[in-house]
Write a structure and sequence with these properties.
alpha/beta; seven-stranded parallel β-sheet; four-stranded antiparallel β-sheet; globular
Length: 525
Amino acid sequence: VYSPNQNFKPSCFMKRSTLLLLFGLLLTVNACKKQESTAYAPNRAEAPDPTQLDAFIRENMLSEGEFIWAWASEDMIWTALANSDNLLSVGYRPAGMTGVEDRLHEIDINAPEWKAAREAVLALILESEQEINPGIALKDMIYYQDGILPVVDVRVLNPATIGLLRRSPMLRYAEPMGYEPYMTDRAAERSGSGCDSNNPESGLSSPADFTTISPNTKRSWNYTFHNIPQAWANSTGSGTGVVIVDTGAGDDQNNLGEEFNQGDSQGRSITKLVTLPQATNWLGLPVGDPETPHDLCGHGTSMIGACAAPRGTDGAATGIAYNCNMVSIRAAADVYLDESREVVGVSNAFTTAGNMGAIKIISMSMGRITTSSQIRDALKFAHGRGKMIFCAAGTSFSWSAWFAGVIFPANQAEAIAVTGIKDNLTARCGSCHVGNKVDFVVVMEKASNGRNALSLAQEGDDPSVVGGSSVATASMAGMAALVWSKYPGWSRTQVFDRLKMNANFFPNRNSSFGWGRVNAQAATN
């Protein structure tokens, strides 16, 4: 678990307070006379207009299905930095070394050649930044330095730094971390994306919405479309480790705590971690309380529930792999990864999961429009460690409906992209993204009334409902856990092939729905 470098601060800092005592004020003033501050915030009023950049991103997303920051000019990179938090993700390598991205899981960044490359890149950045701020030191620039991947995140205030980096033979990438298209005029709309109330759903009825099964739990209406009840005779996920990378696990949901083992769910474990760094201000000083594994959004709790909620005695909804082992990693504040600290949090979550020997499956129902090479590095690292990675194809919000293709990182080769469909088996869910990079679909929305799949609410035993490609992804991870539990000696490729061969479009691939809807019973026979 990592957090931003707390050394990113000036040598002295005065807190504003109308109640500041005269003695304390005098001490602060005298201290500040000894050495000038070296960190400062730029004037946001002078930031370049991002209209052209946003249009460029949109054009590439619609024509290419993705946006890679290497396609942007230096001016565009600066525009993104100046309109966000000026944090630049810098991937490095020893000069002349190729094929780094395919060997990330094997690299030791503390080896001499890697250490020398990192120091040289940081020295280049420091020299450039000192041209506009002579007093700045290296510790003032570094926001985050990865201990596993060859990447360092720095605050860049000199536009010339971008060009110097791009011309360096030691650079793999230099990308703005906290910028997404249309963010400057839609920040309020994006805040808290996907954090709709995860409260119990009123008006649920049996058998339309659920079936009560032994010992006393609710089976969601959509499970029958994948023959999950029949698959449970073959496998319940026992012995398989799954990581949910999301917004955390709710402390108030006992089914993810002391009641994780109850009823027919026994002998398994749940671990709760956090990789989301604490928020900081422009001086790099912490803002608010330190982050914890607790889900403040509700999204992570519902994803864990869909995948692995216990088949218990308390009347709550059961998950698909109700006997798997679960690791929850709180990596983001909400599902739209538009903060620099969320890039760090997700990157750390994938490397953390990649290094867990008992973990076989990683599921993430979050994403962004532009490609983050730092997250992509971490994805490749986990994939290189043999993990099966499921990612949500995307779910549109009002401000992102212009793009309905597969979002990042589900559009990466290392990810298995999942989306949701309606129970008519022909239409995507109302807000779900589709495209030729989708691998599987999960039924999770009723065509007649829009009812979504059942899951765990933020607290209590009455179920909530959750939709979009998010629940489809967590559900698909649960089905993969059933297969891997049945065949524990299999490789990731063997498990994927088993799922693929038991999906309804196999041996052909649908241009919108991939291999289609998995028959879990057949896959676990």
